[in-house]
Write a structure and sequence with these properties.
Strand content: 5-15%
Oligomer: single chain
Strand order of the largest sheet: 4-3-5-6
Radius of gyration: 35 Å
């Protein structure tokens, strides 16, 4: 007897793979391959369409702007939305200040310092002009203030450090503002210090209790990393400065030191800002009293 020759079926694909199985019959043309997917292979995930982010209207604080500039800012707010803040608060998102052509602030103000220490956008007025022309608030990066008359980079550094959650500039620093400082100036400096995480002392700080605290007075830092500063104006008389030293055991420091720390966004050495507690003749006499050491 003659039996028809039977062809062996094709081998099965390994587990976990895909294979094309071709079905055919003697009387028909070859069928197109049929894809059989393994359950181990997942279909591609189609990403959802991005959701548009609606930015909140800016809360803008102006500083050192001339009258026509303030009018233009108000018209920009009316055209594109937003709020003009009368004073600094955490609600402020942008501070606009007058600058020169190099985006350098010509006059520092307490508002300027507060904005830097709080990580707000500190922008030149051209941001308002260009946004008004475009009919929408433009990206701030190209308009960020680059420097003031003392140092560069504080606006960007402060904004990034606040975004990263870094400690405030004046963290662990305590300040006693001398009673001789005018009330308005003392209030403004206190607001700057508070924005930078510093503490304002209401009572006269106690004098140093040991030699280590006396020696640390030159830097204002004690053995546990804290700092206490006595602030006064540059115009303080030597007699008043000496009295402050006798009361606190600390040499008074000019309030300018606070603003220069903000401009540099770092704690500067206090030596160059300490006020005299002895006259030049007294200091000269002390310097000539040399001793021999064996």
């Amino acid at each position: 007897l003659l039996f028809p020759t039977l062809k062996a079926p094709p081998p099965l694909p390994p587990a976990g793979t895909s294979a094309a199985i071709r079905l055919s019959s003697p009387s028909s043309s070859p069928s197109p391959p049929v894809q059989v997917s393994s359950p181990l292979i997942k279909p591609p995930v189609i990403a959802a369409a991005p959701v548009a982010v609606v930015s909140k209207p800016p809360v803008i604080l102006a500083s050192h702007l001339k009258g026509p500039m303030l009018v233009h800012l108000r018209m920009a707010i009316e055209k594109m939305g937003g709020i003009i803040a009368d004073s600094f608060s955490n609600a402020v998102t942008h501070m606009v200040i007058e600058t020169d052509e190099q985006k350098r602030v010509s006059n520092r103000t307490p508002k300027y310092a507060q904005a830097i220490l709080s990580g707000k956008w500190v922008l030149e007025f051209k941001w308002v002009l260009d946004s008004f022309a475009a009919g929408k608030w433009l990206d701030e990066t190209a308009y960020e203030v680059l420097a003031d008359q003392h140092a560069a980079g504080a606006a960007r550094t402060g904004r990034i450090r606040v975004q990263h959650g870094d400690p405030p500039l004046f963290a662990n620093h305590k300040f006693f503002i001398a009673p001789t400082v005018q009330a308005a100036v003392a209030s403004s400096i206190a607001e700057v210090i508070t924005a930078g995480g510093g503490d304002i002392l209401k009572l006269t700080p106690p004098p140093p209790a040991n030699v280590q605290e006396v020696l640390s007075g030159a830097t204002g830092t004690n053995s546990i990393g804290e700092s206490t500063h006595v602030l006064a104006l540059n115009t303080l008389k030597i007699e008043d400065s000496r009295q402050l030293y006798l009361q606190t055991g600390r040499r008074p420091t000019s309030v300018e030191w606070v603003m220069n720390c903000v401009s540099s966004y770092k704690i500067l050495p206090t030596a160059a800002y300490e006020l005299a507690v002895v006259s030049g003749d007294e200091l000269k006499g002390l310097a000539t009293q040399q001793s021999l050491a064996f």
